[in-house]
């Protein structure tokens, strides 16, 4: 039987100054260096396209922070190959949480105001979505999974939690970077930006499968209002929210959670949920259509890569 990782939690390393160019010193793999160089190049090109100086400054600040976050994630990833670094990884995740929360504060208190002053409504929406998405994942990881006492659990469990947190944060910061870059470079090939086309393909396929399954259950509940069927639908809605929803674009998260809450509330209070189920189903069908148009799914769904919406390339 595995023994607890530790009985007391190690203090996190001192956090780096917020919004600076310093990054953790850690040897990178060749792939990590290539991805970093590609990312720096794309960001540099995007910043040159921003004519309004205050907007260019806040955008550069956000990109700088996101790049540093990838440095932290690379260090955690490299540590995952060594079991004796689990405590260090937990400390690094605490630092990353602190800095990510500081970035959302910066976006909400300064960046959005600058975007509003510039008249860029799309950027405003993207920044709001980034802040919402990061906050959502931080709560999921640090308020529900990496809670106090995690180090008293067995090593395999702690390793699994760190691996899961690393995956969520990687997806979170990659999506934030892509959506922000596409505001300034709509034609950017996002699927190749992080050299993880195969991963994006698998995530999109899982998303299509889970959306299709959820739509099937919602249709079933429309035809059969038996309490057991409705409870099953509620469970499926929550399961999708806690699972595959992370592969949706941030702009769709809030819509899903809002409609899901309305449906669940109606079902739990024994109200007539038919109209809400219909509305929810229509929303899911739109999501499913958007996912099928992703560039990485062009071979799976013919003509899916022809969509003009930049978000389809993620």
Overview of the molecule:
- The protein is mostly helical and 314 residues long.
- The chain has two domains: 30-192; 197-313.
- It is built from nine helices and no strands.
- It has helices spanning 30-48, 53-79, 86-118, 121-142, 155-184, 197-223, 227-242, 250-268, 274-292.
- α6 packs antiparallel against α7.
- It is globular.
Helical segment count: 9
Mass-distribution shape: globular
N→C terminal distance: 42 Å
Q: Uncertain spans, ≥5 residues at pLDDT below 50? A: 1-24, 303-314
In terms of topology, how is this protein built?
Layout: H1 30-48, H2 53-79, H3 86-118, H4 121-142, H5 155-184, H6 197-223, H7 227-242, H8 250-268, H9 274-292
Quickly describe the structure.
With 314 residues, the chain is an all-alpha fold.
What are the salient characteristics of this protein?
314 residues, mainly alpha, 2 domains, disordered N terminus, disordered C terminus
């Amino acid at each position: 039987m595995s023994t607890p990782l530790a009985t007391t939690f190690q203090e996190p390393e001192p956090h780096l100054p917020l919004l600076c160019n310093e990054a953790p010193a850690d040897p990178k793999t060749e792939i990590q260096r290539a991805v970093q160089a590609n990312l720096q190049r794309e960001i540099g090109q995007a910043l040159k396209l921003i004519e309004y100086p205050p907007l260019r400054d806040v955008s550069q600040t956000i990109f700088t922070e996101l790049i540093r976050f990838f440095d932290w994630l690379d260090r955690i990833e490299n540590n995952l190959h060594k079991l004796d670094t689990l405590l260090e990884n937990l400390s690094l995740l605490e630092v990353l949480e602190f800095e990510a929360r500081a970035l959302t504060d910066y976006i909400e208190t300064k960046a959005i105001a600058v975007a509003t002053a510039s008249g860029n409504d799309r950027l405003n929406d993207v920044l709001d979505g980034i802040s919402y998405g990061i906050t959502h994942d931080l709560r999921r990881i640090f308020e529900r999974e990496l809670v106090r006492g995690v180090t008293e659990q067995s090593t395999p469990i702690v390793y699994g939690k760190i691996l899961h947190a690393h995956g969520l944060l990687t997806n979170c910061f990659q999506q934030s970077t892509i959506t922000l870059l596409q505001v300034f470079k709509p034609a950017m090939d996002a699927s190749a930006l992080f050299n993880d086309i195969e991963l994006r393909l698998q995530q999109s396929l899982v998303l299509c499968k889970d959306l299709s399954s959820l739509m099937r259950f919602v249709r079933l509940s429309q035809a059969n209002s038996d309490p057991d069927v409705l409870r099953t639908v509620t469970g499926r809605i929550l399961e999708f929210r806690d699972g595959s929803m992370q592969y949706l674009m941030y702009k769709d998260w809030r819509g899903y959670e809002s409609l899901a809450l309305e449906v669940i509330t109606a079902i739990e209070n024994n109200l007539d949920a038919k109209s809400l189920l219909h509305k929810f189903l229509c929303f899911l069908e739109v999501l499913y259509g958007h996912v099928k148009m992703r560039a990485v799914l062009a071979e799976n769904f013919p003509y899916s890569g022809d969509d003009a919406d930049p978000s389809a390339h993620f």
